[in-house]
Write a structure and sequence with these properties.
Structural class: alpha/beta
Number of strands: 7
Strand order of the largest sheet: 1-2-3-4-5-6-7
Radius of gyration: 21 Å
Strand content: 5-15%
């Protein structure tokens, strides 16, 4: 009972206490206590007093995602931009240490001059290295991604001819962060509506304990992602944890996929996915809601199908 009392919100504990009136909880495990209340076990992350007791009564609690559900790692950086380790070192660590089957490399784009962002010529050179590594490391696969800056007007910082060469595109805001809600929201929505945007990166730009998020109409942004089939990132860097867990369920209800991305700039940064998993569990995310629980073949099909759809729509 002390575990429940300290992990649950006041509301959760109060609601549970009503169901346990006149029942003896001393000496009983958490599972036994929930059973006494005629409920299935409610994971500590869900004990917020929101709707978890109703879901439990209806036997509709989500099966929370775990680290071993992940098959690959998306949104990572290498020495091609501002990373510490080479592309091969990142891929090898991902394969050998984390036992994953694919890596998405998303070095910074050309507007991120402060992070050694890739101009068009360097993009082509990186793609040649990826092709070579994919031959050498098969069946492990490196997907050609980019973290493309969302400019102030909401456009991405490459032409369509360059954007179409990537397997997937993470669109993120990195500059001009002082915006009112209307500007920040319209800026993100324009980027979301770009047919080459696959994933919306760290949507609010916050750095915990350091920089406040820019104000957003979260519902409008999530609705736009739903309408345009854009995945939303749960950035696993412990300074970000962005998209905030309080919005995960709204995204899921709208049919939006989430991606738990470490935004790693070094090999050990890939381990930050642990924090993303904790945030996702807090948000009630299940494995089937997360893009990088897909196998390498499944995610390749996902990226290819999206690119073909964009090509048809543009033509």
């Amino acid at each position: 009972w002390e575990l429940i009392n300290h992990t649950g919100s006041e509301s959760h504990v109060a609601q549970l206490s009503l169901l346990l009136a006149n029942k003896e909880v001393e000496g009983k495990s958490e599972e036994e206590i929930y059973q006494l209340a005629s409920l299935p076990f409610i994971e500590p992350e869900l004990r917020e007093g929101i709707n978890e007791l109703a879901l439990a009564k209806a036997n509709k609690l989500p099966k929370l995602i775990a680290v071993n559900d992940l098959r690959g790692s998306l949104h990572n950086h290498s020495t091609w931009s501002d990373g510490v380790h080479t592309l091969e070192e990142m891929a090898t660590y991902c394969r050998d240490e984390l036992k994953l089957t694919y890596l998405g490399i998303c070095d910074h784009s050309k507007s991120a001059f402060y992070a050694n962002g890739l101009n068009e010529a360097r993009v082509a050179a990186q793609h040649r290295e990826i092709d070579q590594l994919n031959q050498k490391m098969a069946p492990f696969h490196i997907f050609k991604g980019i973290e493309s800056d969302i400019l102030f007007d909401g456009s991405l910082d490459y032409s369509d001819d360059v954007l179409k060469t990537f397997d997937f595109v993470v669109a993120s805001v990195h500059s001009v962060l002082k915006m009112d809600e209307s500007k920040a929201t319209s800026r993100l929505i324009k980027a979301i509506e770009n047919p080459f945007t696959t994933i919306l990166g760290h949507p609010t730009g916050r750095l915990l304990l350091t920089r406040d998020a820019y104000p957003l109409d979260h519902k409008k942004v999530i609705d736009a992602c739903a309408a345009n089939q854009v995945v939303i990132e749960i950035n696993a860097n412990p300074l970000r944890l962005d998209l905030d867990w309080r919005w995960h369920q709204y995204a899921i209800e709208k049919g939006v996929m989430l991606a738990i991305n470490p935004d790693a700039h070094r090999m050990t940064g890939l381990l930050d996915v642990h924090y993303g998993i904790l945030a996702a569990r807090k948000g009630g995310v299940s494995a089937h809601n997360c893009l990088n629980t897909f196998t390498a073949d499944q995610i390749k099909t996902y990226f290819d199908t999206r690119k073909k759809k964009n090509k048809i729509e543009k033509s």
